[in-house]
Amino acid sequence: MSEVLIQVLWVLGGVLVLLSLYIIANKALREMREKRAARIRRDLEPRILEYINGKGERLAALLPPPKGMERQVVEEVLLDNARFLKGNSRARITAACEDLGYVRERVRQLRNPRWWKRAEAAEKLAAMKSPKSAQDIIALMRDEVPEVRMRAARALGQMETRTSIKPLIEAFQDPNRWSALRIADILSGMGPEAADELVESFATLPIKARVAAVDCLGRVRSHRAAGLLIKLLSDPDRDIRARAAHSLGLIGDPNFTPDLLRSVKDPAWPVRAMAAKALGKLGRPEAVEPLREALKDREWWVRINAAEGLRSMGERGLAALVGAIEAEDRYARHAAVATLEGAGVLDQYVEKLASPDEREREKALAFIRKIVAAERTDHLMQTAARHAQEKVREQLSRILAPGEVKA
Amino acid sequence: MSPSRILVADDDSTIRRFIVTLLSDRGYEILEAADGEQAYKVAEHAKPDLMLLDLIMPFRDGFDVLQDLKRAPETSGIPVIIMSVKDREEEIVKGLSMGADDYVVKPFNSLELVARVRKVLERESRQAE
């Protein structure tokens, strides 16, 4: 029995020793490979950088034909530099990738049976930005693995060619295979050309994709989408109307104000909320009064956005908020106070309680009494307990005492 | 006349090597810094003629370095070009209003960068005359 046990222990020990040796050898090999790659990089990088910076017509003429690990290192250096360059240097990287056969190699890898190899190839091709690979990446958007399809879509987005926009918009039309939000993200990064194509194809998109497409049009901030977005403010679908209002705010042309003033009275509250936010961004004086009215909206989101909208309109908007503290409507009062608190206006008045100028102190006292009457005193109570100056703490405590100010 | 000295402060060694090649080929002398702390120290000691400053760096970010450079009388005159992936309007305005002379968004065009470097250095040398 003990002999068997000893034998088992010997075998186990042997396996452990072999495993340790394998791990050590593997690590040593990896380190050797890394050191060799670093040495090759040191040798080749200066010539590659000279080429990227404009020396010679072809990189192939400046280097011996790269083979094995050298080939990998050259690709790595080219793509590392592609990350932060644009313009002529970037175009030279693409030309080198085509010339040295990296594009061809990665296109072949798109048909690899392992899905992660296909995904990796799509990413490398995206960094190479060769128009020669666009059709193969478009074909990859039909891959059976969702992750590969999404990497192909992202690659198309990074390629920034007109040919890559259409397949992405087509992807919008198949919500079972694609996340409309992720496609919208990719299209948003492609600039005004993507917006033009989206405007053209909008009518063909399914409803879910339309909402994402409207968002995308706002994020691109293309004025050429404005006509469609204004039309969509009257769309039967309330989500589309809301997103259209939001997108018009992102584009930010003050001429949209009359259309958004109609939307701030829309029967659906998400539309009213988005229109209020957009009006704040456009900053036109004719929006002050409607936004003040929107402070009384029965939906809190509309009230918050209307108050935020007024706040972003500068002095005029802040004056309207100060006026709204005395509104009959309780919601309007609270929304106004909360926003003035957030904008730091309340604290400014509190500081004036310690002013040597009596008129300033009186003005501050009158303002703070209005806040107390508006029944939103949490912030004032905290300030009364913590303010550094005793005089301010005393005055605040007096105003906040029950019965001091009548609502 | 001795070549202008430019300090490249970026934690990405690939970008540093690229800019070193790009600018030293055009006759500039290049100093390097791989983080915010080092960038400030090199700028303080070497007083370069221009600094290319990344915003996102370990230990101290670029805004912090810029603020300290502009605060100290001995370094406040060093012109700074910010180079950053941060491309939002408010970040660009913040950088310029803190005293940067120019702002280059990554990815950048290498020839454009050279032109901007040249322009800032020429302006400085005109002012020195």
Explained architecture:
The complex is a heterodimer of chains A (407) and B (129). Chain A is an all-alpha fold. Chain A has helices at 2-52, 68-82, 88-99, 102-109, 115-128, 134-140, 146-159, 165-172, 180-188, 192-201, 207-220, 226-232, 238-251, 257-263, 269-282, 288-294, 300-311, 315-324, 330-342, 345-352, 358-373, 378-386, 390-400, and one strand at residues 85-86. In chain A, α5 runs parallel beside α7 (146-159), α9 packs parallel to α11 (207-220) and α15 (269-282) runs parallel beside α17. The longest helix of chain A has 51 residues, at 2-52. The radius of gyration of chain A is 32 Å and the shape is extended. Chain B has a single domain (5-123), classed as 3-Layer(aba) Sandwich (Rossmann fold). Chain B has a five-stranded parallel beta sheet, with helices on both faces. In chain B, α2 runs parallel beside α3. β1 (85-86) of chain A pairs parallel with β6 of chain B.
